[in-house]
Specification:
This protein is α+β, with helices and mostly antiparallel strands and 138 residues long. Helices cover 22% and strands 41% of the residues. Strands 1, 2, 3, 4, 5, 6, 7, 8 and 9 form a nine-stranded antiparallel sheet that branches. A hairpin with a 5-residue loop joins strand 3 and strand 4. The longest helix has 20 residues. It is globular.
């Protein structure tokens, strides 16, 4: 009987660790997500009629923005629009001037603080975000 006790503990511990590993799923990020060249992700969402850009590491854990500011450019109904993105907590956010329908693409350029160089630029198609909102009315 004694040889079976260590075997039982090995089986139980293996099952326990298998359950832990199985429970570690990669989190789904909100909004429109793009991968960054340097690693990590950016997530763009429209909240309270404002663009909100969040920064995530490779593990999809939210981090503080590594760019102090940015600019959002888009064209809607023949009009050119541009809004600054400034630091608001753990995100870059625009003033509240983004109204539905979200039927346009927006180009987000991240800027460095010391000089006015663009460090990164990404394009987001907000039509996908509008479709997601149609499917999730909450």
């Amino acid at each position: 009987m004694k040889p079976f006790i260590p075997l039982r503990w090995i089986l139980l511990s293996t099952l326990f660790f298998a359950c832990l590993v199985q429970g570690e799923e990669t989190p789904e990020l909100p909004g429109l997500v793009v991968a960054r060249e340097e690693g990590g992700f950016l997530s763009l969402n429209v909240e309270n009629h404002a663009f909100v850009l969040r920064f995530y590491d490779e593990s999809k854990i939210q981090i503080e923005p590594d760019a102090p500011r940015g600019v959002a450019f888009w064209r809607f109904r023949g009009e050119r629009n541009r809004q600054p993105l400034t630091r608001q907590g753990n995100a870059l956010q625009s003033p509240q001037r983004v109204y539905p329908p979200l039927a346009f693409s927006v180009n987000i350029s991240l800027l460095s603080m010391t000089d006015k160089d663009v460090t990164e630029s990404h394009n987001f198609d907000l039509r996908a975000l509008a479709k997601e909102a149609d499917h999730n009315p909450n």
